[in-house]
């Protein structure tokens, strides 16, 4: 089941329930409008919709680090142009955007950023809707935690987006479990919409304890977060599931934070399973995530990367192969 063997049938493939496999995938639009030019972005977006994909994820800060101005908004603006150029497509997709991480002072990020106060949230979502050319989003995220604001105030402000019809659901990204649950319990007590979706980095390989996997202290999906999601019925989205292509691209080494004996063992089993099912490492990782009830996010910048990812989420791993993948000890030595 290699990409070259299956891309022609991607848009026709369906799951056992009749839904296209692409519905299991989130298309991340982070670099659209900056590192990924408009023509390529439109081609990837068109292919995603044609394949039956629904969820597209962006943020008001994307991609400030790659822009000439040092500020974000380019991704949302590009999506707005795509919606305008494709009448009716907005009704075919589910749109998510995030707020809280846009620089206030581009020279002093992350110390200076918009944050998650009620006023900032309302200001940011208003700007996002304007750039996107829509009157609502299907999911609004708090992008990164803001401890200068009581989490209860953030929860109230996000719940108001739902009650006002600006967002259908709300979620938190890169937050520790205790703050997620404090916010949820507050919302439940107030009788308003609680956070129901989590977005964190996650993949088959696991980082060494105590290592930072990105710009966020709580960016990696911990066992505690996963347990909270399972018990409370929260949806989980995983960003960077393919480690930016490192599973399959020899030019991109596995990041150093994953360099430990547990990863060596996991990669060996991953190679065995990939060979057995005729897929790439990355496709098996995506199938493994889906089997765990996690929705993977693809930040690909090329149509063939999207095709390969759709093939991956369509892959149904037999129980014995899932047991083999899950049976590898993932406890790495302390950093």
From TrEMBL:
* Record domain NADP-dependent oxidoreductase: where: 24-327
Question: Per its UniProt record, what InterPro entries does this chain match?
Answer: AKR_Detox_Biosynth (IPR050523), NAD(P)_OxRdtase_dom_sf (IPR036812), NADP_OxRdtase_dom (IPR023210)
Pfam families in UniProt: Aldo_ket_red (PF00248)
Instruction: Tell me the protein's name.
Output: Aldo/keto reductase
Q: Which organism is it from?
A: Promicromonospora alba
């Amino acid at each position: 089941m290699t990409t070259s063997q299956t891309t022609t049938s991607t848009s026709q493939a369906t799951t056992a329930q009749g839904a296209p496999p692409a519905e299991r995938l989130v298309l991340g639009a982070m670099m659209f409008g900056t590192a990924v030019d408009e023509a390529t972005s439109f081609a990837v977006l068109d292919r995603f919709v044609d394949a039956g994909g629904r969820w597209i994820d962006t943020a008001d800060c994307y991609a400030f680090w790659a822009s000439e101005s040092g500020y974000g908004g380019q991704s949302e603006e590009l999506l707005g142009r795509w919606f305008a150029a494709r009448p009716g497509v907005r009704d075919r997709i589910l749109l998510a955007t995030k707020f809280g991480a846009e620089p206030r002072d581009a020279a002093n990020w992350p110390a200076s950023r918009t944050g998650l106060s009620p006023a900032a949230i309302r200001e940011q979502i208003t700007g996002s809707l304007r750039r996107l050319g829509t009157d609502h989003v299907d999911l609004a995220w708090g992008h990164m935690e803001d401890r200068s604001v009581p989490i209860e105030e953030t929860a109230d402000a996000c719940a108001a987006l739902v009650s006002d019809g600006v967002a259908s659901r709300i979620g938190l990204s890169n937050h520790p479990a205790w703050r997620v649950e404090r916010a949820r319990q507050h919302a439940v007590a107030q009788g308003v919409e609680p956070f129901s979706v989590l977005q964190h980095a996650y993949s088959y390989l696991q980082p060494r304890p105590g290592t930072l996997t990105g710009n966020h202290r709580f960016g990696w999906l911990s066992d505690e977060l996963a347990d909270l999601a399972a018990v409370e019925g929260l949806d989980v989205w995983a960003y960077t599931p393919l480690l930016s292509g490192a599973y399959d691209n020899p030019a991109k080494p596995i990041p150093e934070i994953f360099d430990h004996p547990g990863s060596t063992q996991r990669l060996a089993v991953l190679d065995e399973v990939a060979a057995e099912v005729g897929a790439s490492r990355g496709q098996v990782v995506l199938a493994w995530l889906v089997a765990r009830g996690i929705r993977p996010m693809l930040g690909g910048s090329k149509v063939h990367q999207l095709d390969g990812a759709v093939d991956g989420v369509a892959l149904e791993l037999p129980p014995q192969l899932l047991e083999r993948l899950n049976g590898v000890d993932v406890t790495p030595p302390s950093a």
